[in-house]
Amino acid sequence: MRVSAPCQETGLSASDSAPRSKKSLLRPSMRVTHIKQIDIAILQERGIKGIIFDLDDTLVKSFEPTADPDVSRWLVQIQREFAVFIVSNNASDLRVRLASEHLGVMGIAQAGKPSRRSFRKALQLMNLQVHEVAIVGDQLFTDILGGNRLGALTILVDPLSTEVGWHRNLMRAFERYILKRAGVTHQQPLKRSGTAPLASGTASLSRTD
Ligand SMILES: [Mg+2]
After folding, report:
1. Is 97 in a helix, a strand, or coil?
2. Is the pTM of the predicted complex or chain greater than 0.90?
3. 98 — alpha (psi -120 to 50), left (phi > 0) or beta?
4. How far away, in angstroms, is 142 Cα from ligand 1 center?
5. What is the distance in A from the centroid of ligand 1 to the CA of 159?
6. Which CATH architecture has domain 23-182?
7. Is the Cα torsion angle 54, 58, 59, 60 positive or negative in sign?
8. Boundaries of every domain in the chain
9. What is the DSSP letter of 4?
10. How far is the CA of 51 from the centre of ligand 1 (A)?
11. 8-state DSSP, 197
């Protein structure tokens, strides 16, 4: 795990790392096609103060050095409301550092997701608790599994790249199969405070499902 900026150590309580529900660890709290489709108002309503993003194919296409301008502008906008961090499994410290600097966001490379270790480091650096962050990524078995193991709100996005090689395409097909079996579709209606419960089979921001 490599952090692309100096860190400060702040303590986390033991309860921060405990999963808070019995939901499937592979079931995202929310699924959207693109990060710009994330309902910021709902996150704020839920008390979310920080967002931890995956890098490759979530913010930046694989094999491209920087994000599209509209993604960069969107990140600038949301940083007025949220602390933002990048936690990436990419083995290249240089790629993560350059992308993080380009986006104006701190980042951790070689995160080893679904391990929770780098997420916990990001929480320390953001000075936030688990219930105050959303974890956003394009892979079930790293981003969503790791975020759910941590007990955080998780958001799955469609990968930005389509040309990623047979191995990754095979894994994506498996991920789509799991999502279909679980009934997780895009643009899940999220449970707002004071509204009626969601219908059976829909994902929710409720952590009791
Ligand atoms: Mg990714």
Report:
1. helix
2. no
3. alpha
4. 8
5. 7
6. 3-Layer(aba) Sandwich (3.40)
7. positive
8. 23-182
9. S
10. 15
11. P
